[in-house]
Amino acid sequence: MTYRQWIRNKFLGLQLGSKIRPARPICNAGGWDEEKLKEWLPEEAVGRIFAITPPSPWKGSDCIAWEPSSDGTFSLKTAYNSFKEDPSLPDQVFKLAWNWRGNKLVFEGVITHPTKAMMAIKACAAETLNATRREIVPRRPNFIANGLIKWYPPPKNVTKINVDGSFFSWNNIAACGGIFRDYLDRFIKGFSFNSGSCSITHAELWGIIKGIQIAIINDLHDVIIETDSQVAFNFVKDGVHSLHPCAPLIKDIRILANRIQHINWSHTLREANSLDDLLAKKGQELPFNLHIYDVPPLDICYALSLDCFRTFRLRGS
């Protein structure tokens, strides 16, 4: 790994004397040592490093990934969008030109006359521009009627671990939280984890990792991991490309999951995941690293009582 990967559009240079040796920024628990990192790096760099899983022998070596894409692989489309003034805007002209049936050089290996290709692309571009000038009537969105949702306890002798992530754009900091409960709705443990500067998907996956780690430490052998993130749920169930930015986290989850005798994955709706949402947001206010609660924090007691009484929540509320 290099600092160039951790700090976007910046290069961090450290000049060390011949007699100075930097301490290895990993503590005995296998995570990043915040104090050691802050001795050498600015706050922004520490935040980015905390969002990365620490190196370990079973993860293999680093590889080069293409940042503009969602899965780390290079494509002409992402390269084109990286040069656009606003990459978020759709570019129908590019799609039409790329998928044009005359593009035989790419799809069939046949060379097409440049003049014919240019005329066809211009015609497609003109047609697209005319279509964008027309008045578009938006479709009425679909609403879910009578959507009453509540949290459901796990079966007997099973521990349910609900996890969630949180991201604040104003400080570019993400965090996650989770809560452990049994079939009698009893609070077992809770946690908040300030995961540093990363995406909301990374934070959701960090919540799963920390939940499994706490379960292993407390000898919990039969657990249900429940999240309201459909993306994180699909990543865990189906996996991701080896170059995907979340691939190291998925690898950690699978390694840790093998250390639990019975583990099941569950997806729920956001309204049934309100407790860990509060703990995730609480992690935004805490220093980097993991914070464990042996008793419920006061600011989640009301939401905890609502779950105990099987209170329904309205979908979208």
TrEMBL record:
Residues 162-282 form the RNase H type-1 domain. InterPro entries: RNase_H-like, RNase_H-like_dom_plant, RNaseH-like_sf, RNaseH_domain, RNaseH_sf. GO terms for molecular function: nucleic acid binding; RNA-DNA hybrid ribonuclease activity. Gene3D superfamilies: Ribonuclease H-like superfamily/Ribonuclease H. Transmembrane segments: none annotated. SUPFAM superfamilies: Ribonuclease H-like. This is RNase H type-1 domain-containing protein. It comes from Arachis hypogaea.
